[in-house]
Amino acid sequence: MIKRRVHVAAAAIFSSDGQQVLLARRPSNVDQGGLWEFPGGKLAPFETGFEALKRELHEELGLTIERAQPLIRVHHEYPNKHVLLDVWQVHGFSGEAYGREGQAVRWVALDELFSYPFPAANLPILRAVMLPTEYLISAEEDDDAVFLTKLERALKEDGVRLVQLRAKRLDEAAYIARAEKALALCREYNVRLLLNAEPELLERVDADGIHLTSDRLMTLERRPIAEGKWLSGSTHDRAQLEQAARIGCDFVTLSPLRTTPTHPDAEPLGWHDFQQLVEPAGMPVFALGGMTRHDANHARAVGAQGIASIRDFWK
Ligand SMILES: Nc1nc2c([nH]c(=O)n2[C@@H]2O[C@H](COP(=O)(O)OP(=O)(O)OP(=O)(O)O)[C@@H](O)[C@H]2O)c(=O)[nH]1
Ligand SMILES: [Mg+2]
């Protein structure tokens, strides 16, 4: 039997403060009944994803979309069909949402999403919804006080919400000391901190997760940290992206998009090759390498979660 292929447009509709998304419950008499979902449905013949999104949100919720951007595309094999979930983030709409087909509809806080039962394909979507569009990677800095001043500026003035502590020049004791201080600051601003370090370090510093170098990523056979923590990794090609998926990374950086002073000899991917790699990755991907916040819209247009950068945030 040939498996049916369905292309579905679905929406992560954000509240105006960005802290909640709108979920709907699938009626009990349909496929995956009773599970919660991002509202949407199948593309009609000759429709684009965005056209289908607008039509479905009007039919299902009575909403008119005003502003939307691609969030993530997820391919998933169900026993009876192959689904492509083409998910958009909606930040502007008019109307008051209600279940026009009798389905339950609910605004849910981002940090409560994991307590709702979703279809199996939805895990990457939940990660994408919970992650911001900017990922700060900290620069080498000898002095802890200077480090903290620059970090606080980025949290306060740039509104950064996700940070990776990268400090290759520090020995273990100095790294731990800096991580404790960075964590205290990040907690004040309600910001997530990932350690670019060995996974075991999470037992010493209770940060939000671990970022793996690509070399370290390739040596692992399974996810090295608990599900409740975030696991990200550095990738540069398809093999590394596949390994990140195999060991259950929550998201990755993919680099270098452009040539940078820190990695002058690395062959840049450019947007075209980057886009080819992103969709099959099956998880949120941050573009890295010469990126600034001006590139964020372009990155999202080719399927990325957003941009990761050292220089654009470190001032
Ligand atoms: N809308 C939506 N569909 C999802 C999600 N996750 C997921 O696996 N799917 C799957 O994608 C397909 C979407 O079909 P649908 O039933 O919403 O399509 P539709 O609105 O056009 O309905 P209809 O064709 O029954 O009228 C289903 O097989 C569903 O299980 C999700 O978060 N939102
Ligand atoms: Mg539907």
Automatic annotation (TrEMBL):
Substrates-to-products reaction catalysed: 8-oxo-dGTP + H2O = 8-oxo-dGMP + diphosphate + H(+); 8-oxo-GTP + H2O = 8-oxo-GMP + diphosphate + H(+)
InterPro entries (alphabetical): Aldolase_TIM, Mutator_MutT, MutT-like, MutY_C, NUDIX_hydrolase-like_dom_sf, NUDIX_hydrolase_CS, NUDIX_hydrolase_dom, ThiamineP_synth_sf
Keywords assigned: DNA damage, DNA repair, DNA replication, Hydrolase, Magnesium, Metal-binding, Mutator protein
A Pfam family this chain is assigned to: NUDIX_4
GO molecular function terms listed in the Swiss-Prot or TrEMBL record: 8-oxo-7,8-dihydrodeoxyguanosine triphosphate pyrophosphatase activity; 8-oxo-7,8-dihydroguanosine triphosphate pyrophosphatase activity; 8-oxo-dGDP phosphatase activity; 8-oxo-GDP phosphatase activity; metal ion binding
Transmembrane domains' residue ranges: none
Name of the protein in its database record: 8-oxo-dGTP diphosphatase
